[in-house]
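4.2 Preliminary Data

To establish feasibility before requesting continued support, the project team ran the inverse folding procedure on a target of 321 residues. The structure was first converted into the token representation described in Section 3, and no sequence information of any kind was made available to the design step. The complete token record follows.
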């Protein structure tokens, strides 16, 4: 950091003191000499600082700065001064050194406060993503999606963690047979063992902020399995939150790849290519097409094709590294 500006203030202040002080029995020549001497000292300090603009602000840097001041005070041109005049000049250089020390101490205090503020805002050592705090979470739990002003649940124990849960159905206590506006914004209670839907718009914004993958957990007949997709994204509302998905792997059958490019439908917004409103048929919103042979995890008993009906479903997204 450049220290020139910080030291200019005390030096100019010191020059003002010299120019304004009345010296007993001094003539105009002596006053002129004093001012020139201090000006030369300031010029030498400025030149020295300009050659060392990359100095850091640590303890060694501060010590170096004080040594400059001391060196200048010892090497100032004093051969033509009386002992009284030299003593007066040394006092002024001592004031300059004191002002420099105070300046550096204040600077250090500000740096310490900034460091504390930075650490308090980022205790994990990594920046918290405003759309995806699960990237830096340490344990499973509810987090705040800052830019979306919503809460979500982070799953940190499944497949190395970092997952945002955006769909979860643990029971039939909550009806998922809701309209377009509700599916767009989200509904339910966010929590580990709660029924909820994060919202199409939040998932769209999150998955369009980077590359994301999808994981689906499904429990049927006492068995639990998962399907994983290395590519997952939702288009915007103007495109009816079209599903973009691919790269299947996992222990469940592939129940979503056949819905790639499908638009989302609800009972009041029919966007599939079938004569019947599949959302009404399944009493839930989903990326439907023909109403049969496809998954419907938001049905009152979640359905995963071709496994059948289950008792638990969960959909999670994770930002790819």
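Position-by-position output of the design step:
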């Amino acid at each position: 950091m450049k220290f020139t500006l910080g030291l200019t203030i005390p030096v100019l202040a010191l020059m003002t003191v010299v120019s304004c002080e009345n010296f007993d029995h001094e003539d105009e020549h002596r006053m002129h000499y004093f001012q020139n001497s201090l000006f030369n000292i300031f010029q030498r300090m400025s030149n020295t600082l300009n050659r060392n603009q990359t100095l850091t602000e640590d303890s060694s840097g501060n010590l170096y700065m004080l040594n400059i001041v001391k060196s200048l005070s010892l090497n100032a041109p004093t051969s033509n001064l009386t002992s009284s005049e030299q003593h007066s000049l040394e006092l002024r250089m001592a004031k300059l050194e004191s002002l420099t020390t105070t300046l550096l101490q204040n600077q250090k205090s500000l740096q310490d406060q900034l460091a504390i503020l930075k650490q308090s805002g980022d205790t994990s050592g990594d920046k918290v993503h405003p759309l995806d705090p699960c990237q830096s979470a340490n344990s499973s739990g509810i987090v705040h999606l800052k830019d979306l002003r919503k809460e979500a649940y982070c799953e940190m124990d499944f497949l190395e963690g970092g997952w945002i849960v955006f769909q979860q159905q643990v029971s039939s206590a909550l009806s998922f047979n809701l309209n377009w506006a509700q599916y767009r914004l989200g509904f339910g209670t966010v929590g580990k063992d709660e029924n909820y839907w994060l919202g199409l718009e939040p998932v769209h914004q999150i998955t369009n902020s980077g590359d994301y993958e999808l994981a689906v957990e499904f429990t049927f007949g006492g068995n639990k399995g998962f399907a994983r997709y290395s590519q997952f994204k939702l288009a915007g509302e103007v495109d009816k939150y079209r599903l973009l998905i691919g790269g299947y792997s996992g222990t469940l059958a592939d129940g979503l790849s056949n819905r790639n490019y499908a638009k989302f439908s609800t009972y009041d917004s029919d966007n599939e290519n079938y004569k019947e409103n599949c959302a009404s048929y399944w009493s839930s919103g989903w990326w439907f097409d023909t109403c049969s042979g496809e998954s419907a995890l938001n049905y009152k008993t979640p359905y995963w094709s071709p496994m059948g009906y289950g008792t638990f479903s969960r959909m999670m997204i994770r930002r790819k590294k």
